[in-house]
Amino acid sequence: METISQAIITNPVLIFFTVLVILVAAPLIFKKIKIPHIVGIILAGVVVGPYGFHLLDRDSSFRIFGQVGLLYLMFLAGLEIDMYHLRKNINKGLVFGLYTLFIPLILGMVLSVWLLDVDWTTAVLLACMYASHTLIAYPVVSRFGIAKSPVVLISIVGTIIAILGSLLTLAVAVDAQRSGAFSMKGVAVLLFNLLLYCAFVFYVYPRLTRWFFKTFSDQVTQYVFILAMVFFSSWLAQVIGLEPVLGAFLAGLVLNRYVPVSSPLMSRIEFVGNAIFIPYFLIGVGMMINVRAISNWETLWVSLNMIVVAIIVKWLAAWAAQKTYGMNHVERNMMFGLSTAHTAVALAVVMIGYEIILPDGTHLLSEAIMNGVVLMILVTCALSPIITAGASAKLKLDMMSRGESEDDEDIHSKRSLRTLIPVSNPITASLLVNVALMMKRRPTDDSLIALHVRNDNSQGSVAIGRNALKLATEPTKAVNLKMQTIERYDLNTVTGIVNTVKERNITDVVLGIHARSTVMDSFYGSKVDELLSKLNKMVIITRCYIPINTVMRMVVAVPAKAEFESGFELWVIRLSNMAKRIGCRLIFYASSETIPYIKGVIRKNRYEIRVEYSVLNDWNDFAMLTKVVLEDDLFVVVSARRTSISFSSELEETPNLLSRYFGHSNLLVVYPEQFGATPNLESFSDPIATDLDTPTSEIVLGVKAWWRVMNGKRKKLIRRFRHGD
Questions:
Q1: pLDDT category of residue 180 using cuts at 50, 70 and 90
Q2: In angstroms, rounded to a whole number, what is the distance separating the alpha carbons of residues 98 and 103?
Q3: Do 610 and 712 touch, CB atoms closer than 8 A?
Q4: Judgement on whether residues 235 and 314 belong to the same structural domain of the protein
Q5: Whole-prediction pTM
């Protein structure tokens, strides 16, 4: 390697300032010439690096932050995966992973021996480099909002298989080179360590994370804990002989469940990674690229061969997956674009091979191959985002033309939803807002309004109210959502809430269950009882002892005839949104007549969530659910007002039953909207007509009720006529 003089900028403050200037200027400049910002940051690293104008050295800060950025990139890829869609596409992903592993391995070895005239050990190392790839273009997919599309998930699963397979092959090849013979014992030990490692991560990490989140609610502490878990998992992977990127990705998959997409914690994780760590990694990659090496004919020949082989073998793998599953060319290009970039494992391979000294004193991988690898990294890292961006734009248009999108839930409900969150206690204000955030549709569709009502102007009352409103806005600020706050003076709390609902066209209200002050207090509180009698909008009453993102299941008890309420569809949508955001299972206990309508709402709005249904024949069996609802579940009770169609005498006992049997459970009590626009419900139990599902007794009762009304009107007219005579 050629000797490099000292960098122009050596002051630590100026070094960091220069990096920040690159992070600001590079995307703006390269956007003008239609080059993805990722490529722009890499090229900026080439310009300021040792092989460019040498403004900066690739010192320990770039190596540390670059490694952190690479791990962060893989962690985010695992964290943002929709686990439901991942399970649906796991088989296709495994097939693509085998294609993108074995096609480059086999062709890479043969072509390396044939074109570069290297020995078989060197050919195996180069083939491992061809087989692996890095999801360097994943931020492009996220920006287009298609990270949960099936083809992207297939590519991610393929990445796992390719990285794991290539690293195992690399470990076996290096062990054989150093020991002088292939050892099945070494392979068996490595596989056994891998199984132990995966068992540890998948068993210990979820339980430890849930305990930590339930014990410590501070967002900064939770963020630091998440990062510590990621780097510990990466270090463990390195201990057993694998690359740390695999550990970071597995940590993302495991922690995926506890970091909802729309949560403040997720916003912080993405912000720090995309602002600092990942760009540092990209600049470091660019600083390693020696453009001057092109002047050497041997290096140029080796580089051209490696670049062509690396591109062809990955394209063949994407083409094979396309033909296997009948995909179109856009989906093929997406798989090819995401799998064609080589950075992490390629660098690991070349450094491992360069450090192996042969008996004649030469390196296993020559300097020409090292420079060729660096140039291959430059070309593939530039090509991958360009191909991915083109495929992403076309895939996004295809999804929109089919009525699909990243946030396609509730696509049939065009109603503008406005949620009111009355807050009085600063301690519970943010908790109520988090519940409301989980029930939202797309961030731009729904509005959140925090309200504090006071009936005196004392300094203490004003201070408490403003503090509660301030704390209520913190979760929304963390996810870049503007929430309106209202401080209102009114006769009493209920009057203030009712007047605000009417003035602001509120669709639903989220409340907390009060702390009972006397034995005579009702379970919900006298204010809630009064509010329910004066308000016909949907009211949601909540009490959670654990953070909402640590809920394992949502168990929903639904009364008979709930499908006839005008607010039926809205509460099903709200609960489905929450289940999707949290990533938990949704279990409905309802009558056999109601279940088909719940299925209809979920299917009509294209919710792809884990849902189970059980028949609850009699509301008197309500207490039996104590054996079903666990400590980490959210128990949702759909109730009804006295004037509701679904109201029955059994529902009057619901507050007492909740207080008696579910006093320590996490609760969500829903009172659906009344007297609103009747929803156009669909039932998928019978494709002929929904009327066939209506019991004969209900029809008879309806006819009798109509006859009583008409007969009463007839008698009244007769009396008036006679009185007039």
A1: low
A2: 8
A3: no
A4: yes
A5: 0.67
- Please check whether residue 226 lies inside any domain of the structure: yes
Which of 336, 324, 429, 419 is closest to 383 using CA atoms?
336
Question: Averaged over 404-429, what is the pLDDT?
Answer: 68
Cβ proximity of 118 and 357 under 8 Å:
no
Residue with tokens 């004649």: 360
Residue by residue, DSSP assigns 49-71 as: STTTT--S---HHHHHHHHHHHH
Distance, in Å, from the CA atom of 258 to the CA atom of 56, rounded to the nearest integer, reads 40
Side-chain half-sphere CA neighbours of 305 within 13 A = 25
Domain limits at 614?
A: 544-694
280: CB partners within 8 A, 6+ apart:
19, 62, 65, 66, 68, 69
Measured at the CA of 471, the angle between CA 470 and CA 474, to 5 degrees, comes to 95
Asked if residue 167 lies in contact with residue 250, where contact means CB atoms within 8 angstroms, the answer is no
- pLDDT, tens digit, for every residue of 271-317? 888 888 888 888 887 787 766 666 677 778 888 888 999 999 999 99
d(CA 275, CA 282): 12
Same-domain check for residues 336 and 230: yes
Q: Are 506 and 645 in contact (CB under 8 A)?
A: no
Angle at 262 between CA 73 and CA 612, to 5 degrees: 105
- The CATH number of residue 307's host domain is 1.20.1530.20
Taking each continuous run of H as one helix and of E as one strand, the counts in the chain are 25, 10
**CATH number reported for the structural domain that contains residue 685 in this entry:** 3.40.50
Pair (101, 121) in one structural domain: yes
Q: Which residues pair with 634 in a beta bridge?
A: 554, 666
Whether the CB-CB separation of 19 and 283 falls below 8 Å is answered with yes
DSSP 279: H
Q: Which residues contact 357 (CB under 8 A, 6 or more apart)?
A: 363, 364
Of 519, 541, 563, the last residue of a domain is: 541
Give the H or E element holding residue 4.
Answer: none
